[in-house]
């Protein structure tokens, strides 16, 4: 079972298939969206580990999706790779150097894609980067390993929060029972 969800938002089925083919089989679950609105909705419902976003999209442009990501704390935590065949249109709206995302120019090769993913993971804003941070010298395998560890820790936190909530309810019931017996 794959442990990492990658959301690929591109109106080109060829690009979506190309990304799928370039990533190691079995390590990633690729979720595809053909327009910006569908992609934005999938971000909210699927909680991906990485977003690959085309800049020119129907229904909701990549620029509009990017702006929504920047407004929402939980979405800003997700590494982002912006894709475009026209870098000048991206630079027109977001000047270089790109601070919070990686950029890959279409068409791209596997090495460029892997490098962009690694770069995106190191560019999550420092104030919200999950710990441990990914060192710049990390290999893609190290990065995948760290992502797996982070996801495992997040699941443990959710489990522990549930257990704490249950314990609080039980304690409340015990206190209520004791008070009734003392009266």
Could you walk me through the main structural features you see in this protein, from its secondary elements to its overall organization?
The protein is an alpha/beta fold. Helices cover 54% and strands 14% of the residues. The chain is elongated.
What is the strand and helix layout of this fold?
Layout: E1 4-9, H1 13-22, E2 28-33, H2 36-46, E3 50-54, H3 62-71, H4 73-76, E4 80-84, H5 87-93, E5 102-105, H6 110-122, H7 140-182
Parallel strand pairs: 1-2, 1-3, 3-4, 4-5
Helix pairs in contact: 2-3
Q: What amount of the residues lies in strands?
A: 5-15%
Q: Low-confidence runs (pLDDT<50, min 5 residues)?
A: 127-134
Q: What spatial order of strands do you see in the largest sheet?
A: 2-1-3-4-5
Main sheet attributes: strand count, strand direction, barrel closure: 5 strands, parallel
General form: elongated
How many helix segments? 7
What descriptive keywords fit this protein?
single chain; 183 residues; alpha/beta; 7 helices
Give a brief outline of the structure.
Helix content is 54%, strand content 14%. It is α/β, with parallel strands linked by helices.
């Amino acid at each position: 079972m794959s442990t990492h969800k990658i959301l690929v938002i591109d109106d080109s089925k060829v690009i979506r298939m190309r990304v799928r083919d370039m990533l190691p089989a079995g390590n990633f679950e690729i979720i595809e969206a053909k327009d910006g609105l569908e992609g934005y909705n999938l971000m909210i419902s699927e909680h991906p580990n990485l977003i690959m976003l085309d800049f020119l999209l129907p229904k909701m442009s990549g620029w509009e999706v990017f702006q929504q990501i920047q407004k929402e704390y939980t979405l800003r935590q997700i590494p982002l790779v912006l894709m475009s065949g026209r870098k000048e249109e991206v630079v027109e709206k977001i000047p270089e150097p790109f601070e919070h995302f990686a950029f890959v120019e279409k068409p791209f090769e596997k090495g460029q894609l892997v490098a962009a993913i690694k770069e995106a993971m190191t560019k999550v804003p420092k104030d919200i980067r999950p710990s441990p941070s990914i060192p710049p010298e990390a290999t893609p395998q190290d990065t995948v390993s760290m992502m797996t560890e982070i996801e495992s820790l997040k699941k443990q936190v959710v489990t522990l929060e549930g257990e704490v909530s249950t314990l609080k309810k039980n304690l409340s019931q015990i206190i209520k029972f004791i008070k009734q017996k003392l009266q």
